[in-house]
Amino acid sequence: MSKTLHPETLAIRGFKEQTEYNEHNQALFLTSSFMWPTAADAAALFSGQKSGYTYSRTANPTTATFAKRVAMLEGGEHAVATGTGMSAIQAALLTFLSAGDHLICSRSLFGTTINLIDNHIKRFGIEVSYVSQTDLAEWRAAVKPNTKMLFLETPSNPLNEVADLEALAQIAHDAGALLTVDNTFLTPLLQKPLALGADISLHSATKAIDGQGRVQGGVVVGNAELMKQVQMYMNAGGLSMAPFHAWVLLGGLETLSPRIERQCANADKVAAWLRGQPQVLNVYHAGFGDHPQADLVKKQQTAGGIVVAFEVDGGQDVAWKVIDSVEIFSRTANLGDARSTITHPWTTTHGKMSAEAKEAAGIRPGLIRLSIGLEHADDLIEDLKQALA
Ligand SMILES: *Cc1c(COP(=O)(O)O)cnc(C)c1O
């Protein structure tokens, strides 16, 4: 039946590990190992003749429930839960890349992902090329005989530039490579990369899936064959998600749909208001009908998302003044939270990049990033109004 159910229902009813006690909520299995009745049962479990739980690093019922529900929402055959978003990215990269392989990435990746790739992945003899988020010719030109993966996020952080996933899947598959998409910004409810041809979709569950800034988590989704390999790397590398975090994140999944819907509507309102302000030079939001890639947004996303970036006239001094003057927005880097947040990309998320690299990526000193939450949109607008004044 699950194939015919809507995502709103799957997020709540998609899967549950039920015990004999008939508990209504998914039980929290806070145990590091599982017992077997006999030595023969243990042998059958370890050899794979029988399926079941042995040890929580390998698999745990609460964590498995979380992973299964995300797989259903993404339309993937299987998912592997990990301790953080970064461990999901590490698993996706190191399961499939070896010394001598070549990886092509968008230049507009999350800062810590670039740190992982440049300071660690490259140490293992994996070649990396960075290309434009939106220029397909650059992706095509970067392909080499040893290219094994294309990796990106869409829309980009914080400028909301959209990459054409179907076209990139074609480029990847023509080269015999995998297309991996970090789908954190939109969640499985607003964008389904696998349906557009991607091989792997992954998330930082720390963001909108939790949605209340409580725990960290990550998840990698794809077909059974690929996920079997990710599961083996996750287990060997010890990247597992804690059962308690899975239990919290299941609560997050169950309310994700109404939260994300309201947050997107709020973001559309805040973005539209910002556009009319004399102190604001540019506003970047994928929900604008006149977004430079509006057709692609419409094809890939069911809403514009919760991130709004805007550039104030007056550079860093004015941007900092606005950030220090807000009374409702939290000055913190988390996004997707019920609480709206405000950050200065130039000196925080993109602070480690050179000034030239930032300018080339469109990150200017006057740019401010907002993640819009569940407060009333009018209150958020009033807060920005007094801060801009
Ligand atoms: C936060 C984030 C990550 C990293 O996730 P953690 O849970 O903090 O490890 C990766 N990608 C994107 C797009 C993010 O926003």
UniProtKB/TrEMBL annotation:
Its cofactor is pyridoxal 5'-phosphate. It is an enzyme of class 2 (transferase). It comes from the Bacteria. Its EC number is 2.5.1.-. SUPFAM superfamilies: PLP-dependent transferases (SSF53383). Pathway: Amino-acid biosynthesis; L-methionine biosynthesis via de novo pathway; L-homocysteine from O-succinyl-L-homoserine: step 1/1. It catalyses: O-succinyl-L-homoserine + hydrogen sulfide = L-homocysteine + succinate. It holds the Pfam family Cys_Met_Meta_PP. InterPro entries: Cys/Met-Metab_PyrdxlP-dep_enz, O-succ-hSer_sulfhydrylase, PyrdxlP-dep_Trfase, PyrdxlP-dep_Trfase_major, PyrdxlP-dep_Trfase_small. Keywords: Amino-acid biosynthesis, Methionine biosynthesis, Pyridoxal phosphate, Transferase. The modification N6-(pyridoxal phosphate)lysine is found at K207. Belongs to the trans-sulfuration enzymes family. MetZ subfamily. Catalyzes the formation of L-homocysteine from O-succinyl-L-homoserine (OSHS) and hydrogen sulfide. Homotetramer. This is O-succinylhomoserine sulfhydrylase. It comes from Uruburuella testudinis.
